[in-house]
Specification:
- The protein is of the alpha+beta class.
- Helix content is 29%, strand content 28%.
- The chain has 14 helices and 31 strands.
- Strand 14 (294-302) and strand 15 (311-319) form a beta hairpin.
- Helix 7 packs across helix 8 and helix 11 crosses helix 12 (440-454).
- It is globular, with a radius of gyration of 25 Å.
- The model is unreliable at 47-55 (pLDDT under 50).
- Bound molecules: guanosine-5',3'-tetraphosphate.
- Guanosine-5',3'-tetraphosphate binds next to helix 2.
- Guanosine-5',3'-tetraphosphate is lined by residues 18, 20-26, 46, 48, 89, 140-141, 143-144, 255-258.
Length: 526
């Protein structure tokens, strides 16, 4: 019988991140095909909001329904149990993605070979870097014309601030794309531009094998040998530990749409990617093999039914074995709760589970007990760190437009913030409420949901801010002086922490110069 340690060791919990359109959905689907979780391409509904509907909130409502099913996709692949955590496709929901990244043990980044590193990827990589999350990079769309692979490697290194190490190498690109040489396995895979066909593998002994010349032609074979010689000269030998320490990202090349290079990626991934890692709590480090159960809520999914405020709280298991109906402690509320209908997500289906292990995600039906960041344990007082809030990018005042409904509005705002839809700041000077988001769309979603789920109506008033900075200082007097000077620009976040609202980069720079003893942070956990 498998022990808990076996169960931990075989789990791979990760997220695929990319700039919209690089191929995340396509790659996810191909991984599910290999895992036998789905049987035909096209089975995974893209949870991205169509480009044509960038500000259509009805579309978002529809997508919210779909995305419960794809929030966590678990399947077995060989001896491994894989959990893919989906991240929202629309860049306006980056905040959700940030939080999902706190629940994964590693990440696969998809980059479009023609576009290189794009803005969203850069931002998400910053979160990975903060957490030392190991990353593997998949350069996609090699069947299309794109950039020189050496240039792409340089760009990845420079833009993502991480060492890279190619583990496969393309033979040409675009119309002339012939396949990849798999450096990790020393094999040659030939490309057929056909979505139905799987890769044709040519058995070879080593790079000098003439079967390479026969398969791709002498000129391309020579070029491949030259390229690989250069790679071996420039890039140090692949070191798994450097990958696990998040110092080096292995790079694969392929075409997700053509299911090319995907299996090689997956096979390498399961071998080298980390099983659940220890998690920092305020009290101590929690190891996955600690016998007592613990987990934290990283995402809350509100139900579509506006008449019942029922949600699903997504709990990432950090240690011990989770059991259905066992008494667990909800640390923030100081209550003991039993979960009679926890769901696991296997092959896109939700089903009730009796037990789950570190690395797994269980969905707990909830009617308002949970907030993002809550800890659940077998009894211990634990508070997990590492669910930071990041400075929003857009800010607006929220104003009540129906004086009879101010209670509903307050309740609605509070619950949507608990769900992590956006961040609330209260100006300390005038008491006005400010909502901060990562994109315009979220304001529309909030307004719509406040109306439909809480019967409250609101209006937005413009507010031009650059960043919300969490402030701290070891010098109480300096802090007091800063607060006196900037009293109109101070707010409290949800947890009651002081936040400085800087209306421009220049103002922030001046504040830094004038108050050298104050530290300004763009995220709430420093
Ligand atoms: P995303 O989730 O990262 O946003 O990207 P998604 O997988 O939806 O892919 C974006 C577009 O790129 C899709 O085309 C998809 O078919 C295409 N694509 C993905 N991988 C490859 C590849 O390896 N080669 C080529 N040539 N295209 C690829 P679309 O026309 O926007 O959408 P669809 O109508 O095909 O779904």
């Amino acid at each position: 019988m498998a022990t808990i340690n076996d169960e931990i060791a075989r789990r791979r919990t990760f997220a695929i991140i990319s700039h919209p359109d690089a191929g995340k959905t396509t790659l996810t689907e191909k991984l599910l095909l290999y895992g036998g979780a789905i049987h035909v391409a096209g089975a995974v509904k893209s949870n991205k909001i169509k480009k044509t509907a960038t500000s259509d909130w009805m579309e978002i409502e529809k997508q919210r329904g779909i995305s419960v099913a794809t929030s966590v996709m678990g399947f077995d692949y060989g001896d491994y149990k894989i959990n893919i955590l989906d991240t929202p496709g629309h860049q306006d929901f980056a905040e959700d993605t940030y939080r999902t990244l706190t629940a994964v043990d590693s990440v696969i980044i998809v980059v479009d070979v023609a576009k290189g590193v794009e803005q969203q990827t850069r931002k998400l990589m910053e979160v990975c870097r903060m957490r030392n999350t190991p990353v593997i990079i998949f350069v996609n769309k090699l069947d299309r014309e794109g950039r020189d692979p050496f240039d792409i490697l340089d760009e990845l290194e420079a833009e993502l601030h991480i060492g890279v190490r190619p583990l496969s190498w393309p033979i040409n690109i675009g119309a002339k794309f012939k396949g990849v040489y798999n450096i990790y396995e020393h094999s040659l895979d030939l490309f057929t531009p056909d979505k139905q066909k799987v890769t044709e593998r040519v058995e070879i002994d080593d790079l000098s094998d003439e079967r390479i010349d026969a398969a791709v032609g002498q000129a391309d074979a020579d070029k491949l040998r030259e390229d690989l010689e250069l790679i071996e000269g420039v890039y140090p030998e692949f070191d798994v530990q450097a990958y696990l320490d998040a110092r080096v990202a292995p790079v694969f090349f392929g075409s997700a749409l053509n299911t090319f290079g995907v299996k090689e990626l997956l096979d390498c991934f399961v071998k080298i990617a980390p099983s659940p890692r220890p998690v920092e709590a305020l009290e101590h480090t929690v190891r996955p093999d600690d016998p007592s159960f613990s987990g934290f809520v990283f995402k809350i999914h509100a139900n579509m039914d506006p008449n019942h405020r029922s949600c699903i709280a997504f709990v990432k298991i950090c240690s011990g074995r989770f059991e259905r109906n066992a008494p667990y402690r909800h640390v923030r509320l100081g209550k003991t709760l039993k979960f009679s209908a926890p769901t696991a997500f296997m092959a896109q289906k939700k089903s009730i589970v009796d037990e789950a292990y570190p690395g797994d995600i269980v969905g707990i039906p909830d009617t308002g007990n949970f907030k993002i960041g809550d800890t659940v344990t077998g009894g211990e007082e634990l508070h997990f760190r590492g669910l930071p809030s990041f400075s929003p990018e857009m800010f607006k005042y929220i104003e009540n437009t129906d004086p009879m409904k101010s209670k509903q509005l307050d309740k609605g705002i509070q619950q949507l913030m608990d769900e992590g839809v956006a961040q609330l700041f209260v100006n300390q000077f005038n008491g006005r409420k400010i909502i901060g988001t990562v994109g315009q769309l979220q304001f529309e979603v909030i307004q719509y949901r406040l109306e439909h789920e809480y019967g409250a109506s609101c209006r937005w008033e413009p507010l031009s801010l650059y960043k919300a900075c969490w402030i701290e200082s070891d010098d109480a007097e300096a802090m007091a002086a800063f607060k006196r000077r900037k009293h109109q620009f101070l707010a409290l976040d949800r947890e009651g922490r002081d936040v400085f609202l800087a209306d421009s980069a220049y103002v922030l720079q001046m504040a830094r110069t004038d108050f050298p003893d104050i530290r300004f942070h763009f995220s709430s956990e420093y």
